[in-house]
Every structure is written in C-alpha cells, then in structure tokens.
Amino acid sequence: MGRTPISFVQSLGVMIMTNAITNKLAVSFNHKQIDDDFCFFQLTTSDKYIAKGAYVLDRPDLDLKALSVAFDYGRTAFVLFNKKDAPDKKGFIDSLGDEKLSIKQVYSSDIKDYILFRLFLYSLSNFSTDFLSYNNLTGKLILLDTCWMAKNKKSFKALDIDVDKDMCLLASATTFTATSLIKDKKALKELPKYVVGGKSNSLKRVLTTDDSQITYIRKILGNRKTEIPFLDLSSKKRTQSRAYYLYHTLDAINQTYRNYLSASFKEQKISEKITQIRDKQIIGKTVYDLRFSRINCVNYDLVDSDKSYFDNLVNTLMDTISPNTVSISNEIDSTMYNVAFIHDADYYKDHDYPDPYQSFNRQNVIQCVTKEDVGTKLDDNSKAIINSCLKELVIKDDILHKKRISLDKWEDFNFESDWIFGIEVDGIQYFMVIHQNGSFELEYKSDDFLSFNNKILNPLSYLLSQSSSKSKTLISDGKGNINLISRTTVSTMPSKEIFTAEGIRSKEGRDVYLSGVTDINFYQDQDNFSYNVGIIGNGMNSSLSKASLIYNVETIQGENIVKSILKTMSVIFVKYNEFTVLPYPVKYLREYMKIVGLKPNKNKQAK
Asked: What 8-state DSSP symbol labels residue 554?
C-alpha cells in the first residue's frame, strides 16, 4: 500500500514527482462468491426510524447470529448473515416484534457499495490480537487498544471506525466513561451501557445489571474532545495514531474477507506543491509595530488564586513588546488595544456570575485570553500564546479602524485586479472585497431578499446561496472568474512503510513517506481541481492532531483560479506555526462575523 516516488532526470537537475495517498477506498467485490456464502436482509420501517435498532445484535431473546447491521439514514437497515445461520423471513420479522417493519432478502449487488462495505467492516468483531480488539455495537465498529485504558479503569479511549458514502475510511476518537462518574441521570437512562473484558478487552453491551462489573457509557466528562493524534512521528508513539489503525483495519478486512472483496487506498497525483512559508517576518513586524501602540490588560477572573496567571500574562506581554506599552486597568478602554483575561465559556455555564465576553462592545479592539488557555501553558509555550494574541489584536484593528490588511503586504502578491471572498454561515452571508493595495470593504446580509451596497456582490451572493455544500467559500478575481471551495471527507495519508521506517523527517524521508501530508498540494485531474494544506515540512511538528482534508474547487464561472491564490495559505499568522487551510482573508471574514454578532434574520440590512 506504499509507493515509491518516480524520478525524472532533467538537464537542470532532478525533479521528484509524487502521489498523495488518500483515505478514499478503491473496492472491488466478488458478488457471486458473496451471495454464495452470505445472506442479506433489508429492514424498512414506516416510522421515522427503526425502533430499538441498537438492540438487533444484542438481545439474547432473538437468538440471532447476525454478523453485522448497517443503517441507511435511520429508516432502513441491512443485516448480514452467514448463509448457514440465516433465519427465514417470517421468523426474523416475528422475532423482532415490530409491526411497522417490513423485510426482504436482497443480493449484494442490490446494496450501495458503502453500505455493503460497512456490513463487512462492522463484522470484524471477531478480529483481535493481544492488544487490539474490534467490537461490533450494532451499526458501529469500535476499536480498542489496551494502552487506552485509564489506570483506575474509570474511562478509556476508543476509535470509531467507519466508511462514509464517498467511500472514505474514517477513524474518530471517542471516550467511554464509568457510569459511577456520570451525574447526568438522563444520560445514564438513555445511553446503552457496556462492559469490558477478555484477553484483548472486548466491549459488550449490558442488558442486565451486574454490580460486580464496571459499566461504561459512551460519553466524555465535560465538553472537551477526545484526542488521539492522526499521526505521531516519534518512534514509540507512531503505532498509537489514527493513521496506523486505518491501515491496520484495511489489512484486517482484506485478510478476513480476501475471497469476497479487495480494498486499497486511492492515490492522487500532485500537480504543484508549495513548501515555503511566505511570511516568516510577519510576526516580528507585528511585534515591532506594536511598540508604538498601547495595550490595556483587564482581569475579569474573580478567583483570587488565578491572579498569578494574569500577572504572568502581563509580564510576558511586557517582555515581548515593551514595559512602557502595556498597562493594567479595571475596564476596557476604547482608545487602546485591550487584552481581557477571562475563563472559557464552559466555566461560566457552571457558575452563577455572567460571562463578561457577552457584554463586550464589539466596536472595541478586544482579544480575550482565558485562564484555561494560559495556566501552565504560558510557561511551556509563551511565544505561541503571545504571538497569537498580538496577531488577533491587529486583525481586529484592521477590521474596525484601518480597513486595510496590515499584517501582510497584500500589494506584494502583484495581483492584477481586486479579489472577492464570500462565506455563508447559518444563512447569513459575509463578503470581503480586497483591492490591489490591500485596502478592503466588508459587507454582510442576513436575508435573501436584501441587496448588497456593492452591486458586484449580488450575483456572487446568489451563486453562494445556490450551493448545497455545508462548508463553502466563494472566491472571485474580479475578472469574472468564480470558484467555490468546499471541504470533503477525503484526507491524505502517510505511506504505510512510515511505521517501521527511519529518517522520516529528512527531506528525502518526507518525499517518500509523507507526500501529501506535508506542505500545500494542488491536484488537477482533467477538469477536476482540488488541494490540501498539510503541515510545514521544514521543521515539522512531531505530532499531527488532525488529518489534512482535501478541498474541492468547483469552477462556477470562467477559469479555475485557486492555484493563483494558494500562496495566501502559505502564511502562519492565522494558525501559529501552521499553514491556513483557506485563503487568509477568510480569517478576516470570520472575525468580522464575530464583531457584527449576527444571528439568522436578526438584522435585515446589508452593511
């Protein structure tokens, strides 16, 4: 499943042409052999969803020997049996005891490819090693590794392995928590309970209470996300990443069902690559420029013991900028840059006093820094926190006062015309028109019947609203060329050999093992265009928390122009020490969205 770069020797040197491995599957099914050995039933309900669907494999009174169940939009489910264990239709429907259910036997070729693959994927519950186990929880495949169990056994991480309708193999992190720690009685009542046991920690559903066992529900305490990195490049943790388990799962299904199907990860040829950071001096320039501005620090944290964190923040700001520039007061000052020290939103949900963020005047330049962000993190990574804070202040000031991009020299791009960027969030559209010298105008509208003041935006607004993509960004170069960028679930993968290789972080190692995972990559397949933004290759991080998603670029009108705007993504001031996945003017649009503070249909006038 790995691949070796193809080298072309030219008179001017050696050019390495590489492909990017993706998580999109190429699957071939042996339908005849499948139908000879397996039996499929399609269940359909006249209700909104199949009642008690999660019990199909778990109810002992049914005595079903189904291998797996895969749901298709709630109202329909498919059940896989070994042919020798398949029940007759009448016995099956009678045992389920739901008069709203209808059932019919189908052939494998009648089933959508992603549903058919899911059925075999979910049936991997018998596949296990001394450390790993695959668990079929009726419509879910949960992978457990013994190293993810907490020492006190009160919680454990797991991976939800799935394939989506676009045939992308996915691994999302989840957490199971002991019921003894759950105070939410509603969750305890509604969510299914599980126990863990056996040599490889198999997960099974609990249908009767047994006080001698620790029971778990699929829920994490608080609102924090479960983190299992997509890829960790350290030698000891490399096989504890989601990328590794995706390969492991693909190997497992190919091994288990080698007579019935064959699956592999698809590759895409990289047409163009951007490797250099364009703005290495931008943060330094920002810090230098802010020496002539005043920064007002306000402590909104009412906990006395947290004051040391605020003091640490102020002292670090003074060391970075200048002691004469940074001051402390009790309230926001409209004439200054303001840094507000508060808690995160979750903290205020659990306390009686109001969240000060909600009362801030959005016309003031205010950057909030939370105690949860600072804490000990300021000691460990002060440069990242302070640089991010300063960058955010400048962007807000650009939007509120300067009306010009000051973090970057937009004119250095040498664009021949204006550029227009548009996004739609919760039915509200936001547009930014940037002129060749970096000055810009921002407008929004919250109703389809309204018009923009800048008439050139109205036809673009219509095109943006017509797209059915959930995550979409419109770009236009002002010459009549209009593209629409939308996020996909396709992501790039490292080479399989990376999990045993050495020297993977050298330039040669990155080309061989991390092609498509590093740098900005542009793909062109005839009239289809896409790109992904990976991690910075030179001086790369040792751990990648997220996979690099591929963004599709649709040419709405004229020519595809995304290649000429890719360089606006090779900047690190949107994300500290990371490229941005969308042209950085989208960052301005999202900050503008927060400043105007709109909710759907709250304001009926374009501005």
From this structure: E
